[in-house]
Amino acid sequence: MTHSSTGVSAAPNPSRRTVLAAAAWSLPVVAATTAAPAAAAASGTTLSFSASSYQAAACASITGATVRAQAKGAAAAGVAVTLQLTAGYTFAGGATSTVVTTGSDGTAACGDITVPASGAAGTVTATAAGSTSATAALSATPAHLLVFSPRGTTAVTSVPAAAAPVAGEFFLADQTLYRHGVGAVQGDVVAVGALAEAPRKDGAFLLPLRFVDGSAAVFDTSSGTATRVPATPAGAVPLAADLFLSGTTLYRGGMAVASDVAACGQLVEHEQGSGPTGLFELPFRATDGTPRLYRSPSDEVRTAYEFGRPGGPPAGSVPVAGDLFASGDALYRVSWDGANPYGTGVIDSGIQAWGALSPNPYFSGQRLLPVRTTGGDAALLSVSAGRVRTVSQVPSGATPIGADLFLSDHTVYQADVGAVATDIRQVGQAVPTAGDSSRVVVPVSAVTPQC
After folding, report:
1. Rounded CA gap, 129 and 201, in Å?
2. For the whole model, what pTM was predicted?
3. Where are the chain's structural domains?
4. Is the separation of the CB atoms in 62 and 146 below 8 Å?
5. Domain 8-24+143-445, what fold?
6. Does domain 28-140 have CATH number 2.60.40.10?
7. In this predicted model, what pLDDT tens digit does every residue of 22-54 receive, in sequence order?
8. Are 380 and 372 in contact (CB under 8 A)?
């Protein structure tokens, strides 16, 4: 059995554009807006660009930009115009400046302008003797997007083009954690775990980190800071929220809270029919194969009540999320003490892979687990209903991401909707946009620039 992890990677070599399915969301490779010439001088020549801004993908070329020279409202031919680039943008051969001469119509092509891998905002400035100068903005088309369910997208800003999506609005590049719209928020990061709501239930989400020196830390989304966790063994694997795994021992707050841990599933808040309980459950398989549950913040561990009973998950079952385990092609639900308003035992069979258990974007208070059946169909498990429903508008064999989102052939699909983002190279963890929100967001990346 295979299952998806925190990040999902598509096959290599996608195209250099991220194109959204809906035209209202699409971003052109080269965007041009109405020309905005510099104010004319009292005498002499006035320079202007054919657009106030130009845009292309990182490491791709901006083409079609032209500069115009006018004198007393007429085209000025034979004007030698110097073009100067900033922020790593270059002309052919790597030059940052060049000279072009206007033709009989007063215009001259600027030539191809290569966008740097960083995707930083830059400018192109035109100057000429006895002329007013002109400047146009240069930028990269977004290398990253936030894909939402219900349907919608947002272009990611303040994140390097080469960064990898982590979770929610977080990305990682060159040992630095970045946040959409903010920029770098933490350095010296070599490993991250899963983003999860803080057990204290104050609206914050926690992201466990491992620093270059092997120490553990927890990044708090509310404060925007990372706090080291002393007494956690060096090199511990960040799991989720404030949990770390060292060998077969689970740590929280620097204290060992569970032992004999062989494999872990997804940490989610436990529900008891009437809504959230404030207890977060992490399903894990013990070294002897026993299916067990860890609860935070109470730091309790129990063997799944149904283990060894008729209909219960067998030894060696794979921990999925919360109170869910899988064995063979069957998905099981267990309980802490034998009481579960949603029932226990086998929920459904014929399950081959799954994504992240997430809020149901369309029904507040419910949860969805996207799955792929053994027949290759995309389907959704409604946790409260306890049934798996095959969906439409998603190709066979698609990889489940989270909520009702799937990935197939570099394209993100939404169940019963269709493609919502294309040319996607890598996908991060799907999480709710807030602790009490049913809207889900997943970060995606389109290109790994190679200039």
Report:
1. 64
2. 0.76
3. 8-24+143-445, 28-140
4. no
5. Methylamine Dehydrogenase; Chain H (2.130.10)
6. yes
7. 322 222 333 333 333 333 333 489 999 999 999
8. no
